[in-house]
Amino acid sequence: MKTDLDSLATALYVKTDDLLKDSPQLAPWRPAVGIAPRLGDAELVTLAMMQAMLGFTSEARWLRYACVHLRHLFPYLPQQPGYNKRLRKAVDLIRCVTRALACDTTLWTDDVWVVDSTPIECGRSRETAKRSDLAGWAQYGYCASHTRYFWGLRLHLVCTLQGLPVAFALTGAKADERETLLGMFEVEPQLVAERPGQTLIGDKNYFGRAFEVRLANWDIRLLWPARKGESERAGAHLFKPLRQVIESINETFKGQLDIERHRGRTPGGVMVRVLQRILALAAAIWHNDHTGQPVMRSLTAYDH
Which of 19, 76, 166, 260 holds its CA 20 to 30 A away from the CA of 194? Predict the structure, then answer.
């Protein structure tokens, strides 16, 4: 199997089509009577992944490019309004495909996870913050890594050390990272129940005796660097290199998948655009794993 974009797209299409055949309830709802869509759901998911992989932040520009260069993969392509509506309705399907890809890798059973959150900026002017459809969900927050304030959301990610997305959540910028993490595990109790003795590594924001006890009840061992005034914690020598792993995963989303240039203006629009990037990363790791590539998180073979 080759490691190029066409091979990845074909493999993803087949995987998604098989998933929909086995679980047709995952497809977005549509009335039983009406015109059947000419672009299938598996094709839609594949097209969405390729858009994120190739770095097109404008749907109109993406469809113009696809009409010229991707007709051999997609005989029919919708107009921009139809593509946008189909994408927003396919949020749950994209999430399910992302999980199916993750489960179909050798990395899914890794016993060490890393957790972090990264800003998703949604606007910069005061008028945007007041008039945007995102007002009430998006908030003003502070990013310590870049020493800046921003207005928007936070993407909370639990990943393996190779960068495979295990769980994720999109919250307001002021949401407590610890409570968000606990909520992610409460929504999917089987995720941790199937992994006794899992190790979770976070930064200094994931602290607290009560928080550590709640994770221990799920048999999760929490490791985080010592805060100011605390004694050195076990495994402290591992935090510096592993912190770079977490930052490099975030940089893949920002530098290669343009997650901060999502151009979403509504909650549904932001959600699906963020999910496109997570799907693209999961698909690349899945394909690299199945083709025996030495670097699982490498996107170089697919981003052109």
Answer: 19
- Tell me the per-residue pLDDT of 89-122, one tens digit each, with 9 for 90 and over: 999 999 999 999 999 999 999 999 999 999 999 9
The rounded distance, in Å, linking the Cα atoms of 297 and 165 is 11
pTM across the whole model: 0.95
Asked whether residue 8 is assigned to any structural domain, the reply reads: no
Cα 229 to Cα 116, 117, 121, 195, 226: the distances in Å are: 23, 24, 33, 33, 8
State the first-to-last Cα distance of the chain, in angstroms, to the nearest integer: 18
**Between residues 34 and 118, which one has the greater pLDDT?**
118
Instruction: Indicate the number of domains in the chain.
Output: 1
Q: Could you write out the DSSP letters of every residue in 3-39? A: -SHHHHHHHHHHHHHHHHHH-GGGSPP--SSSPPPSS
Q: For 275-297, b where at least 16 C-beta lie within 10 A, e where not — what string?
A: bbbbbbbbbbbbbbbeeeeeebb
In a domain, 78, yes or no: no
At 130-167, the pLDDT tens digits run 889 999 999 999 988 778 899 999 999 999 999 999 99
User: What does the alpha-carbon distance between residue 198 and residue 222 come to, in Å, rounded to a whole number?
Assistant: 9
pLDDT digits 0-9 by tens, 202-254:
888 898 889 999 999 999 998 877 667 666 666 666 666 777 788 899 999 99
Within a domain: 270? no
| CA-wise closest residue to 285 among 299, 272, 271 | 299
- Domain presence at residue 33: no
Supply the range of the domain harboring residue 250: 109-260
How far is C-alpha 59 from the chain's CA centre? 19
CATH number at residue 204: 3.30.420.10
CB 284 within 8 A of CB 297: yes
